[in-house]
Each structure stands twice: as C-alpha cells, then as structure tokens.
Amino acid sequence: MSARPPLPNPIRAAFTGGEHEGTTVVNIGPSHPATHGTVQIVAELSGERILRADVHCGYLHRGFEKECESHTWHNLIPYVDRLNYCSALINDFAYCEAVERLMGIEITPRCRYLRTLLAEYSRLADHLTCTAAMLMELGAMTAFLYLVMLRDYIYEHLAAVTGARVTYSFGRVGGLANDLPDGWLRRLEEILREYDVFVGRVHGLVDRNRIFIDRLRDVGVLGAEEAINWGITGPVLRSTGVPRDLRKDTPYLAYGELDFEVPVGIKGDNYDRYYVRMREMDESVHMIRQLVDLLPPGPVSVDDRRCTLPDKRLVYTEIESLINHFKLIIDGPQVPAGEVYTAHEGANGELGFYIVSTGGGVPYKVHVRAPSFVHVGAIHRMLEGYQLADLVPTFGSVNMIGGECDR
Amino acid sequence: MSVGVHDRVAARWGAQALEVADSHGTLAILVEPARLAEVARSLKDEFGFNLLLDVTAVDWPERTPRFDVVYHFYSTRDFVRVRLKARVPVDAPVVDSLVPLYNSARFAERECHEMYGIEFRGNADLRPILLYEGFVGHPLRKDYPKHREQPLVPYRK
Fold first, then answer.
1. Nearest CA in chain B to A339
2. Superfamily of chain region A64-406
3. Which of A64, A147, A245, A301 has the greatest number of CB atoms lying within 10 Å of its CB?
4. Domain range summary for chain A, segments of one domain joined by +
5. Residue A42, min C-alpha distance to chain B (Å)
6. Mutation site for B-interface testing, chosen from A39, A71, A354, A380 by largest number of B Cβ within 10 Å
7. What domains can be seen in chain B, in order of their start residue?
8. Do the Cβ atoms of A229 and B50 come within 8 Å?
9. What does the pLDDT look like over B7-37, one tens digit per residue?
10. pLDDT tens, position by position, A253-294
C-alpha cells in the first residue's frame, strides 16, 4: 500500500502570512459549527484580533444556473426552493413572478394576497432561524429553543398547506399549487399568539442582558455608505440606519395595501442586526394579521391554458384538456422571448431573478442575484479589527445561507 | 419620479448608446464595451444609481460578438433599476472592471469571470470563487457540456 497523495487544496488564499511580524494565519471552516452552511475563512490574527480575513464560499455549489438551462420553466420550481431553504416560498414567488411578467400573466387577487401572506410567514421562519442560531452560538439555549419551537410550528403548519416542511415547491407560474386547507387560518392565529408570548420572553431574556450587549454592541460595525457600496441589502442594510425595503419602495404583490413599518438600526453592529430582525418579525406578524382579513375568495390560479393545468375531471373526459395537460407536462409553459429582472425583498435582502427566454419551454438563462452571495463578499469588512470570537455572532447575524450563496 | 430618472438617463446616453429600451420597467442600455465604465460612472455620480446589484453574462454562441455582459443597477433614492449591457467577442472578452466605483463588483465579477471567462480589466482578484483552483473551462458557456465531470479528488474505485 502506497501512501495516499495529499488532497489538493480547493482554494488559493489571498494571503499566506509571514508579511507582518508576530501574526498567525489560521483557517476556519469549511466545516465548523459556527459556519452555518459551509464557508471557509482564512484569517490573519494578531493575538486574538483579526487583521485580515479572506472568505471562501462555493462548497455547496451545485450548478443551479447550468441545470436550469435544460428543464422546463415549471420544473425549476423545486430548484429555486433550494436556494434560500429557510424561506423557500419567497424564492418560489419571485421566480414565478419573473416568468409571469415575461408571459404577461396577471395573477388572481386571492393568489396575490396568499403569496404575500405566505412570503411573510416564510420571512418569519427565516428570521426565527437566524436569530435562534445566533443566540444559541452565544450560549442562549433557552432563547434558541423558544424560537426554533415557533419555527417548527410554522414548518408543520406550512406542511399542512404545501405537503413539505422546508422545501415546498408550492408556487406555480400563474398561481399556487393549492388553496389553503380548512382550518388553516384558525391555526395560524394560534401560532401568532404563541409567537407573541415566546418572542416576548426572548426580548426579556436578551435585549438588556449584559452578556449579550457586551458581545453584540459595537461589534461587526458597518457604515451605511459602505454597506451600499458593497451591495448590501435587506436587514443588514437596514441595521445601518438606511430604511430601504423593496416591499415599501417598489411595492409588489399586495404590499402596497398593507400597513407596516421599516425598522432600522442605529450603527450597523451585531446588536442592531439582531434587533432589526426581531422588529421585522413583529411587522411580518402585523402584516399576516391584516392579510388574513383582506384575503378575498376566488381561484388561486389564473384561468390561462398556457400555464395552468386543466381541471382533472376535464382531462379525463375531453380531448382538448387531455392534450393541454399533456403539452403542459411534457413541453411546459411556452414563455415568449425576452428578458426580465424581478426583485423581491427576500429574508436576507434583494432576491433578484434575471431570466432570458428565447421563446419556448426551456429557459435560455436563469441568473439569481442572491443576497447571501453579495453579503459574503462584504463580510470581511465586519470581521476585520474584531476578536476571533466575534466571528461567531457576526457571521450569525448576517445569516449567510449556503444554498443561495453557492447556488 | 421613476419615469423621470429613466428619461433623463435615456436623454443623456441615448445618442452614444447602441440601444435604449424599456424592459419590463427596467431601463436597458446597450453600450460599446469601451464606454461601459464611463456610463457606469455617470449612472452612479449623476443619477444616483448607488447600488450595483449584479454582474452576469449571457452566451450567444451563434452571434458575433458572442457575449453580453450584463449589469444591474438600483437607485436607493429613486427606486428604479437600470440594466447595462455590453457585447464582447469570444477572442477578446474584456471589459473594464467596475471595482473602482463599486466594491460589490469584486465578488460579482469574480463569479462572471469564472462562469463565462469574461476578463475584467482592473479587477486584480479574479480567483475562482464557486469552483476550485484548477477547474478547466467556463461552465455557464453554452459549449460546456452539462455532464462533464472534473472531480478535484478522484472518485473511489
């Protein structure tokens, strides 16, 4: 048996050390409990202080964009689910809207409100996940359990409507897979009441807790100008005090009719990122309650044979519907040639889909503007100058999602 | 408000651009590659497009020049978007980097370079980002077969 050759190094670090006296270069990740998802950080340390950091992503790259070029438009929906798997429905709806815009489809009123409701519900789950993980890594096991318990209620509740807990494949071009089952909205209100109780307790445990303030305040500070220059959007940008939110600024779905605030932070440190997410969850709950009242009756999918499957009863009894069903499954919806960029406010920032069609059933190109990818490009700005131990909450507060970062 | 900004950008650059169109609410401008950095600077400084969202490319193998390099900008003041495109040929896929204007161009250009082989003149850091060191080819080009495998570590026999 000959010795195995050493494994090749997949990355080339931006620096290898030895340039500064008394510094050490360490490697963190790609597999580490504090790096949710797989991300690798090469850091140059002076004592425990990070002087430089070089962040590498890509360990979860699975060729999403290449794969998209050989499937029908509908068959991509399970793939887009797996971008940000903490709030998969937001991806679904953003992608579907991009395709609908190319096809010139206007979704039904019920679908519009339902998508808004489900998107906010997903945002709630996403922020719960992020905040819970960040607090747990700082030792707050109780807060973690309270928050993931709520998240699990939401997952189970979404499973009741979509059939899956995490990756739902629930959006459809021109509508949704199903309408809500009976009693769903009643359970929703129960969960929102649980939310009020347990998030109230988390506020009590964390907000004015000396340990957390010492760990979070003035750590990982990012200025507003700098954040915009680095392309940062979403809660991380709002934590720097910039009240930019696509739901408010370029209202889509039903956001224009809702009453909500855009919470902002003061100086863009970890505490602000924590607090902005906590406040955004309150706003999401406020929006969901309004949407429950606004939800109109009617169909959830448009009556358009270019994208919506005909009623099963008709498929079995008349030839036109049978052929229509067959064509929609085999060839997929035919999308006119053109290109479109559609952006939704994802849980982490601007989630954009740039799609190019040459006409026909298969996309020519699908590109995702994933907020996590852009944020990973800037995260070293929040790490440099702070302690190595601060890497954990800073990374947690940015909520990098490997699925959408690496695609 | 939003229409106003688009109109002003179109009036400022309409004559020099190859094509100006409205693409589903986004102003789409096609320019010569040599003008790209100049137009981007004007978008940022004169019209307030302070957020460079994204850099990507589209491969049209049948066409000369073969690639569209595509940029998306957003204005956090006027809430409007601009798409800037430049066409580059496959034998010299070079455009000027926007890193001097936007730091967000660093990662985005690295990705575009890796996936399409576009060279960004002035971006010193075009290391692989989603793929690994030593990966051969540019996987999002249309002539890269989807099933080609390049395992970094050989498969176990």
1. B23
2. Cytochrome-c3 Hydrogenase, chain B (1.10.645.10)
3. A147
4. 64-406
5. 14
6. A354
7. 2-121 (3.30.460.80)
8. yes
9. 888 877 777 878 888 888 888 899 989 888 8
10. 889 899 999 999 998 899 999 999 999 999 999 999 999 999
Q: Which of B132, B140, B149, B153 to mutate to test the interface with A (most CBs of A within 10 A)?
A: B132
- Quote the tokens at residue A316: 């079995």
For residue A359, give the amino acid letter.
Answer: G
Longest dimension (CA), chain A: 81
Chain B neighbors of A256, CB-CB under 8 A: none
What residues have CB less than 8 Å from A127, skipping those under 6 apart?
Answer: A235, A277, A278, A280, A281, A284, A347
Residue in A228, A339, A374 closest to B23 by CB: A339
The model's pLDDT over A29-57, given as tens digits with 9 standing for 90+, comes to: 787 776 677 888 888 988 889 988 999 88
- Please provide the DSSP assignment of A331-383 as one string: T-PPBPSEEEEEEEE-SSSEEEEEEEE-SBSS-SEEEEE-HHHHHHHHTHHHH
ipTM value of the model?
A: 0.89
Report d(CA A350, CA A354) in Å as an integer: 12
Strands, E assignment, A121-272: 171-172, 175-176
Task: Using a CB–CB cutoff of 8 Å, tell me whether A385 touches chain B.
Answer: no
Q: Is the four-CA dihedral B21, B53, A75, B113 of positive or negative sign?
A: positive
Touching check for A407 and chain B: CB below 8 Å?
yes
